[in-house]
Amino acid sequence: MSIRPQEPAPATPAPGKLPLTELAEMKARRQPIVMVTAYDAPGGRLADEAGTDLVLVGDSAAMTVLGHSSTVPATMDEMLVLTRAVTRGARRPLVIADMPFGSFQVSDEDALRNAIRFVKEAGADAVKLEGAGPMLSRVRTIVGAGIPVMGHIGLTPQTATMLGGYKAQGRSAEKALALLTDARSLEAAGCFSLVLEAVPSPVAARITEQLSIPTIGIGAGVDCDGQVLVWHDLLGLYDGHIARFVKRYADVGGVIRSALTAFAEDVRQRRFPEEQHSYAMPQAELEIFEHGAHAGHEEEAWL
Ligand code: KIV
Fold this sequence. Notes:
Layout lengths: L20 H9 L3 E5 L3 H9 L4 E4 L3 H4 L11 H14 L4 E5 L9 H15 L3 E3 L7 H9 L4 E6 L18 H17 L3 E5 L3 H10 L4 E4 L7 E4 L1 H5 L16 H17 L14 H20 L1
Parallel strand pairs: 1-2, 1-8, 2-3, 3-4, 4-5, 5-6, 6-7, 7-8
Helix pairs in contact: 2-4, 4-5, 5-6, 7-8
The structure holds 3-methyl-2-oxobutanoic acid.
Protein backbone atom coordinates (compact mmCIF):
# COMPACT_ATOMS: atom_id res chain seq x y z
CA MET A 1 0.00 0.00 0.00
CA SER A 2 1.42 3.38 -0.90
CA ILE A 3 0.95 6.36 1.38
CA ARG A 4 -0.07 9.43 -0.60
CA PRO A 5 1.08 12.85 0.61
CA GLN A 6 -1.69 14.79 2.35
CA GLU A 7 -3.42 17.50 0.35
CA PRO A 8 -2.82 20.91 1.95
CA ALA A 9 -5.70 22.10 4.15
CA PRO A 10 -6.37 25.69 5.28
CA ALA A 11 -5.56 25.01 8.92
CA THR A 12 -2.28 23.24 8.16
CA PRO A 13 0.08 25.30 6.02
CA ALA A 14 2.78 23.21 4.36
CA PRO A 15 6.23 23.26 6.02
CA GLY A 16 8.37 26.12 4.72
CA LYS A 17 5.33 28.13 3.61
CA LEU A 18 5.47 31.89 4.20
CA PRO A 19 3.09 32.55 7.11
CA LEU A 20 0.19 34.80 6.10
CA THR A 21 0.81 36.93 9.20
CA GLU A 22 4.30 37.74 7.87
CA LEU A 23 2.72 40.01 5.22
CA ALA A 24 1.45 42.52 7.79
CA GLU A 25 4.85 42.40 9.46
CA MET A 26 6.54 43.12 6.12
CA LYS A 27 4.26 46.14 5.74
CA ALA A 28 5.19 47.31 9.24
CA ARG A 29 8.91 46.90 8.41
CA ARG A 30 8.33 48.68 5.06
CA GLN A 31 9.75 45.61 3.32
CA PRO A 32 8.28 45.43 -0.19
CA ILE A 33 6.18 42.35 -0.98
CA VAL A 34 6.79 40.64 -4.33
CA MET A 35 3.91 38.99 -6.19
CA VAL A 36 3.89 37.50 -9.67
CA THR A 37 1.30 35.53 -11.57
CA ALA A 38 1.95 31.93 -12.63
CA TYR A 39 -0.18 29.35 -14.39
CA ASP A 40 1.71 26.05 -14.24
CA ALA A 41 4.07 23.97 -12.08
CA PRO A 42 7.35 25.19 -13.68
CA GLY A 43 6.11 28.77 -13.26
CA GLY A 44 5.32 28.16 -9.59
CA ARG A 45 8.74 26.55 -9.06
CA LEU A 46 10.62 29.37 -10.80
CA ALA A 47 8.68 32.03 -8.86
CA ASP A 48 9.60 30.16 -5.68
CA GLU A 49 13.29 29.88 -6.65
CA ALA A 50 13.35 33.60 -7.45
CA GLY A 51 12.19 34.30 -3.89
CA THR A 52 8.78 35.84 -4.61
CA ASP A 53 6.44 36.07 -1.65
CA LEU A 54 3.09 35.60 -3.35
CA VAL A 55 2.10 33.76 -6.51
CA LEU A 56 -1.23 34.70 -8.01
CA VAL A 57 -2.92 32.24 -10.32
CA GLY A 58 -4.60 35.13 -12.09
CA ASP A 59 -7.67 34.84 -14.25
CA SER A 60 -5.42 36.73 -16.66
CA ALA A 61 -4.72 33.10 -17.69
CA ALA A 62 -7.80 33.46 -19.91
CA MET A 63 -5.77 35.88 -22.04
CA THR A 64 -2.17 34.82 -21.45
CA VAL A 65 -2.49 31.05 -21.77
CA LEU A 66 -5.99 30.31 -23.12
CA GLY A 67 -6.04 32.87 -25.93
CA HIS A 68 -9.21 34.78 -25.01
CA SER A 69 -9.44 38.54 -25.50
CA SER A 70 -10.54 39.23 -21.89
CA THR A 71 -10.47 37.54 -18.48
CA VAL A 72 -14.24 37.00 -18.44
CA PRO A 73 -14.36 33.51 -20.06
CA ALA A 74 -12.09 31.87 -17.44
CA THR A 75 -14.01 29.02 -15.77
CA MET A 76 -13.74 27.39 -12.35
CA ASP A 77 -12.61 24.13 -13.95
CA GLU A 78 -9.80 25.85 -15.86
CA MET A 79 -8.68 27.86 -12.83
CA LEU A 80 -8.69 24.75 -10.64
CA VAL A 81 -6.39 22.86 -13.04
CA LEU A 82 -3.99 25.81 -13.29
CA THR A 83 -3.99 26.45 -9.54
CA ARG A 84 -3.33 22.78 -8.77
CA ALA A 85 -0.36 22.87 -11.14
CA VAL A 86 1.08 26.02 -9.55
CA THR A 87 0.75 24.67 -6.00
CA ARG A 88 2.75 21.61 -7.08
CA GLY A 89 5.62 23.93 -8.07
CA ALA A 90 5.52 26.74 -5.49
CA ARG A 91 6.50 25.74 -1.95
CA ARG A 92 7.37 28.87 0.05
CA PRO A 93 5.21 31.55 -1.64
CA LEU A 94 1.56 31.79 -0.70
CA VAL A 95 -0.48 30.71 -3.72
CA ILE A 96 -3.55 32.83 -4.32
CA ALA A 97 -6.27 31.60 -6.67
CA ASP A 98 -8.15 34.28 -8.59
CA MET A 99 -11.89 33.67 -8.47
CA PRO A 100 -13.10 33.81 -12.08
CA PHE A 101 -16.05 35.89 -13.24
CA GLY A 102 -19.30 34.15 -12.30
CA SER A 103 -17.77 32.13 -9.46
CA PHE A 104 -18.61 34.64 -6.71
CA GLN A 105 -21.13 37.17 -8.04
CA VAL A 106 -24.29 35.08 -7.61
CA SER A 107 -24.44 34.59 -3.84
CA ASP A 108 -22.36 34.30 -0.68
CA GLU A 109 -22.99 30.54 -0.63
CA ASP A 110 -21.83 30.09 -4.21
CA ALA A 111 -18.73 32.19 -3.57
CA LEU A 112 -17.88 30.17 -0.46
CA ARG A 113 -18.43 26.85 -2.25
CA ASN A 114 -16.04 27.90 -5.03
CA ALA A 115 -13.45 29.31 -2.62
CA ILE A 116 -13.51 25.99 -0.75
CA ARG A 117 -12.90 24.14 -4.03
CA PHE A 118 -9.74 26.19 -4.61
CA VAL A 119 -8.41 25.26 -1.18
CA LYS A 120 -9.50 21.61 -1.06
CA GLU A 121 -9.03 20.54 -4.68
CA ALA A 122 -6.22 22.83 -5.80
CA GLY A 123 -4.23 23.45 -2.61
CA ALA A 124 -4.58 27.27 -2.78
CA ASP A 125 -3.57 29.20 0.32
CA ALA A 126 -5.97 32.06 -0.36
CA VAL A 127 -8.36 33.44 -2.96
CA LYS A 128 -8.67 36.83 -4.63
CA LEU A 129 -11.86 38.47 -5.80
CA GLU A 130 -12.59 41.71 -7.62
CA GLY A 131 -14.77 44.57 -6.37
CA ALA A 132 -16.31 45.97 -3.20
CA GLY A 133 -19.94 46.99 -2.49
CA PRO A 134 -22.02 43.81 -2.85
CA MET A 135 -18.79 41.75 -2.76
CA LEU A 136 -18.12 42.74 0.86
CA SER A 137 -20.49 40.08 2.15
CA ARG A 138 -18.68 37.52 -0.07
CA VAL A 139 -15.42 38.49 1.62
CA ARG A 140 -16.96 38.22 5.09
CA THR A 141 -18.46 34.82 4.30
CA ILE A 142 -15.27 33.32 2.82
CA VAL A 143 -13.03 34.75 5.56
CA GLY A 144 -15.57 33.54 8.13
CA ALA A 145 -15.01 30.00 6.83
CA GLY A 146 -11.26 30.35 7.42
CA ILE A 147 -10.09 31.12 3.88
CA PRO A 148 -7.94 34.24 3.47
CA VAL A 149 -9.20 36.70 0.85
CA MET A 150 -7.24 39.26 -1.16
CA GLY A 151 -9.34 42.16 -2.51
CA HIS A 152 -8.86 43.89 -5.87
CA ILE A 153 -10.08 47.41 -6.69
CA GLY A 154 -9.29 50.16 -9.20
CA LEU A 155 -9.30 48.70 -12.69
CA THR A 156 -11.16 45.43 -12.22
CA PRO A 157 -10.80 43.62 -15.58
CA GLN A 158 -13.82 41.34 -15.07
CA THR A 159 -16.08 44.42 -15.08
CA ALA A 160 -14.05 46.60 -17.44
CA THR A 161 -17.11 47.20 -19.65
CA MET A 162 -18.91 48.88 -16.73
CA LEU A 163 -15.80 50.99 -16.13
CA GLY A 164 -15.74 52.21 -19.73
CA GLY A 165 -12.80 50.03 -20.75
CA TYR A 166 -9.32 49.21 -19.53
CA LYS A 167 -8.37 52.58 -18.11
CA ALA A 168 -6.99 54.10 -14.93
CA GLN A 169 -9.52 54.55 -12.12
CA GLY A 170 -9.87 57.16 -9.38
CA ARG A 171 -8.61 60.10 -11.38
CA SER A 172 -11.16 62.57 -9.98
CA ALA A 173 -11.27 63.52 -6.29
CA GLU A 174 -14.74 61.97 -5.97
CA LYS A 175 -13.71 58.67 -7.55
CA ALA A 176 -10.46 58.58 -5.57
CA LEU A 177 -12.43 59.04 -2.33
CA ALA A 178 -14.77 56.23 -3.41
CA LEU A 179 -11.72 53.97 -3.87
CA LEU A 180 -10.48 54.90 -0.40
CA THR A 181 -13.91 54.04 1.04
CA ASP A 182 -13.91 50.68 -0.81
CA ALA A 183 -10.39 49.92 0.44
CA ARG A 184 -11.38 50.61 4.06
CA SER A 185 -14.53 48.49 3.68
CA LEU A 186 -12.57 45.56 2.26
CA GLU A 187 -10.12 45.75 5.14
CA ALA A 188 -13.03 45.84 7.61
CA ALA A 189 -14.63 42.86 5.84
CA GLY A 190 -11.49 40.83 6.56
CA CYS A 191 -9.24 40.98 3.46
CA PHE A 192 -5.62 40.21 4.31
CA SER A 193 -4.34 42.30 1.39
CA LEU A 194 -5.60 44.44 -1.45
CA VAL A 195 -4.58 44.74 -5.11
CA LEU A 196 -4.75 48.29 -6.45
CA GLU A 197 -4.78 48.24 -10.25
CA ALA A 198 -4.31 51.30 -12.48
CA VAL A 199 -4.83 53.87 -9.74
CA PRO A 200 -3.01 57.26 -9.63
CA SER A 201 0.12 56.95 -7.50
CA PRO A 202 -0.85 59.58 -4.88
CA VAL A 203 -4.23 57.91 -4.37
CA ALA A 204 -2.61 54.48 -3.95
CA ALA A 205 -0.07 55.99 -1.55
CA ARG A 206 -2.83 57.46 0.63
CA ILE A 207 -4.81 54.21 0.61
CA THR A 208 -1.64 52.29 1.54
CA GLU A 209 -0.95 54.68 4.40
CA GLN A 210 -4.48 54.44 5.77
CA LEU A 211 -4.79 50.65 5.69
CA SER A 212 -3.16 48.25 8.10
CA ILE A 213 -3.28 45.44 5.50
CA PRO A 214 -0.68 45.48 2.69
CA THR A 215 -1.56 46.89 -0.72
CA ILE A 216 -0.14 45.26 -3.83
CA GLY A 217 0.08 47.63 -6.75
CA ILE A 218 -0.07 47.12 -10.47
CA GLY A 219 0.04 50.50 -12.15
CA ALA A 220 -0.41 52.13 -8.74
CA GLY A 221 2.98 53.70 -8.08
CA VAL A 222 5.96 52.84 -5.95
CA ASP A 223 4.39 53.56 -2.55
CA CYS A 224 2.24 50.43 -2.43
CA ASP A 225 3.42 47.79 0.05
CA GLY A 226 4.16 45.38 -2.79
CA GLN A 227 4.05 45.06 -6.55
CA VAL A 228 2.67 42.46 -8.94
CA LEU A 229 3.23 41.85 -12.63
CA VAL A 230 1.68 39.32 -14.95
CA TRP A 231 4.13 36.52 -15.87
CA HIS A 232 3.74 36.89 -19.64
CA ASP A 233 4.09 40.70 -19.51
CA LEU A 234 7.18 40.60 -17.30
CA LEU A 235 8.89 37.95 -19.42
CA GLY A 236 7.91 39.20 -22.86
CA LEU A 237 5.61 36.32 -23.71
CA TYR A 238 2.41 38.23 -24.46
CA ASP A 239 1.69 39.51 -27.97
CA GLY A 240 -1.45 41.53 -27.20
CA HIS A 241 -1.79 45.10 -25.92
CA ILE A 242 0.85 45.97 -23.31
CA ALA A 243 -0.39 48.32 -20.59
CA ARG A 244 1.59 51.42 -19.57
CA PHE A 245 2.35 49.89 -16.17
CA VAL A 246 4.17 46.84 -17.58
CA LYS A 247 7.93 46.58 -17.36
CA ARG A 248 9.37 43.84 -19.54
CA TYR A 249 12.35 42.19 -17.85
CA ALA A 250 13.17 39.69 -20.61
CA ASP A 251 12.29 38.70 -24.16
CA VAL A 252 11.52 35.04 -23.45
CA GLY A 253 9.17 34.98 -26.45
CA GLY A 254 12.12 35.93 -28.68
CA VAL A 255 14.31 33.24 -27.10
CA ILE A 256 11.60 30.60 -27.65
CA ARG A 257 10.98 31.73 -31.24
CA SER A 258 14.65 31.52 -32.23
CA ALA A 259 15.10 28.14 -30.51
CA LEU A 260 12.08 26.71 -32.37
CA THR A 261 13.33 28.14 -35.67
CA ALA A 262 16.76 26.57 -35.11
CA PHE A 263 15.13 23.22 -34.24
CA ALA A 264 12.98 23.30 -37.40
CA GLU A 265 16.02 24.13 -39.53
CA ASP A 266 18.09 21.31 -37.95
CA VAL A 267 15.30 18.78 -38.60
CA ARG A 268 14.92 19.88 -42.23
CA GLN A 269 18.69 19.73 -42.80
CA ARG A 270 18.96 16.33 -40.99
CA ARG A 271 21.36 17.91 -38.49
CA PHE A 272 19.19 16.66 -35.60
CA PRO A 273 19.33 14.18 -33.95
CA GLU A 274 23.10 13.72 -33.70
CA GLU A 275 24.99 10.67 -32.42
CA GLN A 276 24.73 11.79 -28.79
CA HIS A 277 20.93 12.00 -29.03
CA SER A 278 20.57 8.47 -30.47
CA TYR A 279 20.75 4.90 -29.11
CA ALA A 280 23.14 2.17 -30.34
CA MET A 281 23.01 -1.64 -29.92
CA PRO A 282 25.71 -4.35 -29.75
CA GLN A 283 27.11 -5.10 -33.21
CA ALA A 284 26.38 -8.86 -32.91
CA GLU A 285 22.73 -8.19 -32.09
CA LEU A 286 22.51 -5.77 -34.96
CA GLU A 287 23.85 -8.36 -37.40
CA ILE A 288 21.30 -10.97 -36.25
CA PHE A 289 18.57 -8.38 -36.53
CA GLU A 290 19.64 -7.35 -40.04
CA HIS A 291 19.79 -10.99 -41.09
CA GLY A 292 16.28 -11.67 -39.70
CA ALA A 293 14.85 -8.52 -41.20
CA HIS A 294 16.36 -9.36 -44.58
CA ALA A 295 15.10 -12.99 -44.49
CA GLY A 296 11.61 -11.89 -43.44
CA HIS A 297 11.56 -9.43 -46.29
CA GLU A 298 12.56 -12.09 -48.87
CA GLU A 299 9.92 -14.53 -47.54
CA GLU A 300 7.20 -11.91 -47.88
CA ALA A 301 8.29 -11.16 -51.43
CA TRP A 302 8.12 -14.92 -52.34
CA LEU A 303 4.57 -15.29 -50.91
O1 KIV B 1 -5.55 38.13 -13.15
C1 KIV B 1 -4.52 38.74 -12.83
O2 KIV B 1 -3.42 38.45 -13.31
C2 KIV B 1 -4.64 39.83 -11.86
C3 KIV B 1 -3.44 40.70 -11.65
C4 KIV B 1 -3.34 41.68 -12.74
C5 KIV B 1 -3.48 41.37 -10.33
O3 KIV B 1 -5.67 40.02 -11.31
